UniProtKB/TrEMBL annotation:
Protein name per its UniProtKB record: AB hydrolase-1 domain-containing protein
Organism annotation: Pilimelia columellifera subsp. columellifera
Lineage, uppermost ranks: Bacteria, Bacillati, Actinomycetota, Actinomycetes, Micromonosporales
Domain AB hydrolase-1: 6-175
Length: 183
């Protein structure tokens, strides 16, 4: 990986699959990463509560195109993540479409679920914060193993939140992120 334009190492922050990707980048390019903040992101493998096939089937079940936002909200619901999905729909001449193809999303999720990346987790050198929603989807056993295998990891729990803590408790998430980035 080439040196960044700004010259120095950066903080990587990611949620869920994005956090998994950030963790891999920190493991593979330690000289480029100054700090790592993972929100509801683990080492991968089959520990998630939903299989890639279940998630792929759900994405494929969307009755697209949605004629308008109200139809999208009616199908997706009113949870913070549902609102986020609906607000990110892309307008086409025939209606509103997601910005992804279900089979590509399923393939990306399957790649994370395929193999637990414990070796990469051990190779991360950057100061790391593992942030979990109080009712998140990371298995407690995975969190405990992550903490036990690297004693330099700060564990933070955002109360009254789940896997999408950044959407469910945005002010708490911003406070956590500011604290992590300013240490």
């Amino acid at each position: 990986m080439e040196q960044l334009a700004g010259g120095g190492p950066v903080f990587l922050v990611g949620q869920s699959m994005g956090g998994h990707t950030a963790m891999l980048a920190a493991a593979w390019y330690p000289e480029l990463v100054r700090g790592l903040v993972l929100l509801e992101a683990g080492v991968g493998g089959e520990g998630d509560e939903h299989s890639p096939a279940e998630l792929g089937d759900w994405f494929a079940s969307w009755p697209v195109p949605f004629p308008d936002l109200s139809a999208a909200f009616e199908f997706l619901g009113s949870s913070p993540i549902a609102l986020s999905w609906a607000q990110d729909l892309e307008e086409h001449s025939d209606g509103l479409w997601p910005r992804f193809e279900p089979e590509i999303m399923q393939g990306a999720i399957a790649a994370v679920a395929e193999e637990a990346r414990w070796d990469e987790w051990q190779r991360v050198k950057a100061p790391t914060a593992l942030v979990c929603g109080q009712n998140g989807s990371l298995a407690a056993a995975e969190v405990q193993r992550m903490l036990a295998s690297r004693h330099d990891v700060q564990h933070i729990v955002i109360p009254e939140s789940g896997h999408d803590a950044h959407l469910e408790q945005p002010h708490a998430w911003v406070r956590v992120l500011e604290k992590c980035l300013n240490r």
